[in-house]
Amino acid sequence: MYFGVTYRFSSRCSEISADRSVSRSGPNLERVNHRSGNTRTARVRSTGLCSGRAAALLSTLVAVVFTVAAPPVFAGEDADAILDRAETSMFPEKSIMTFEMETTRPGRSDSRLVFESKYRRGTGSLMEITEPSRSRGTRFLHLDDDLWTYNPDRGEGPIRLSPRDSFQGSTFSNRDVTDQQFSHHYAPEIVGRETLDHPWEGQVETIVLEAPADDPDAAYGSITMWVREGDHLPLRIDYESRSGVLFRRMIIGEFEERAGSVRPTKMEMRALDEADAVSTVTITSLEVPDSLSDRHFTERALTR
Q1: Is 71 exposed, middle or buried (0-12, 13-18, 19+ CB in 10 A)?
Q2: Which of 27, 104, 210, 289 sees the fewest Cβ atoms within 10 Å?
């Protein structure tokens, strides 16, 4: 959230004006806020020779303009810590979860899948489809940055998956579903504060994180995340391709007390490059166990 401000000093020697904000690019100073499209400028125009006293006053006013109008400094706020809080609210350090995924696309039949999932942060995840019956028993393993699927009915071994491909025909990528730790692949920084118009939560004050990929295996070129002020719960994530095209948006919400903490129970991923294509994940149960054995995250567990 940026603060509008106007200061003006004029005499025979100089005039200074500012509107919205400033940056340092020469006699006409300009910064573009790429998120909102607003251009905020400050101009210094000389109209004559200044006396020493006037010059000192001018310098003081310039300092005031730059101090008041510039974007806030986020002292004491750590982007990595905020991202960590956001992702652990969605997916605790360890979890056993049941969730439903429904996908709607124009011209196609709606699909509904139910999964059971085991997840341990820093290790990986093992998921299994329990509904519908035709897909029951299909499993997915994420381990050491590798993604695998196994269908016991096909009579063949595990198949390796691309992290960027669609997960089971949904608008989520394979990595979106199987690897729930953004901090493994993206380097966040705080870029501002905004009032977010959230479709389920209403008007919410947020901190905005931008996180370009720092891992060649990341599913996206960068992500932008809006987290709620105070508790850092995630509300929205925008996903950009490596060429900089915004093509997916996830809305997160319907918060409830789960496993000792307030957590989102609904995540809606919309494909922005495909009209009316949307997948919705609803978490129906979540347990945080005391421990999860290594045996859950092995090829043997995948192909049992």
Answers
A1: middle
A2: 27
